[in-house]
Amino acid sequence: MFEKLRQGLKGIVERISQSGLTEKDLDPLISDLQLQLIANDVSIQVAEKVCGELKVRLIGTEAPRFGDKSRLVRDALRESIRAVMAIGREVDLLEMVSEVKHRGEPLVVMFVGINGTGKTTTIAKVARLLMKSGYSVVLASGDTYRAGAIEQLDEHARRLGVRVISHRYGSDSAAVGFDAVQHARAQGIDAVLIDTAGRMQTNRNLMDELTKIRRVVHPGLTIMIIDSLIGNDATEQALTFNGSVGFDAAILTKVDADAKGGSSLSVPYLTGKPVIYIGVGQGYDDLQPFDAAWFTERLLGDT
After folding, report:
1. What is the largest CA-CA distance in the chain?
2. CA distance 10 to 43
3. Residue 118 lies inside a defined structural domain of this protein
4. Residues 10, 123: one domain?
5. Which of 15, 22, 179, 266 has the greatest CB tally within 10 Å of its CB?
6. How many CA atoms lie within 13 A of 94 on its CB side?
7. What is the mean pLDDT of residues 170-174?
8. Smallest Cα–Cα separation from 280: which of 232, 223, 234, 228?
9. pTM over 0.90
10. Where are the alpha helices (DSSP H) in 133-249?
């Protein structure tokens, strides 16, 4: 996980640790760091921000003249990355379910993202997470276009032991979501997880459809599912969905196979929306919380 980026940062830390901390000393090394970040799918804007933060933290810093500066450099880089990932609103899914439950309502969660990102499987993982925390769940099969989408969600629901609300293929997705919310209210279910269609992000009809679903079901939380392996396209997808439909948080999938890690940095900074979980396998329990501290330790903890 993130091995390529991790090794690149390790090399930069070693080189800076052996140099002086003047602007003249640092400029070529900071430039190399920027190239290293871009090569690992970090967007240019984010790479520039990380490098700028690091430069401010290091120039003129008091350091042992002949001693090892690696800890100082590593800590400065760690804080620079965390500063870039420090976005506005935090999103705590479990806390949100608890708060809405106390008001006697279900938390409605709408999932968006293009086909192939692992959206339906991730919905099942989120259902598993909620159930392990003691909450009841109903799924809504709002992808009424992709062949096999309803059956796929049905199979996950069967394995998890939860109900799916679905209509026929070609039905109005917003109506499916509405029926699922009404069912949850009638049965006292804590959370409604709504799957949606995922045709290419440039499809205007898709964006209009997703906007309609949001208008009808009023989700308390909209989560975008992003494939971490697609590099800079992940950021472009996030920006497009955020501009057209809007979302509150992201889940990155296939992170266990991601050697670069650029999406983990770029998506939060450029969209202002946090990554709250990452997928690290195919099992229902292979979903783990994500935050800046965890990410930076994966990159720099042992370097």
Report:
1. 72
2. 20
3. yes
4. no
5. 266
6. 10
7. 89
8. 228
9. no
10. 149-160, 173-187, 204-217, 232-244
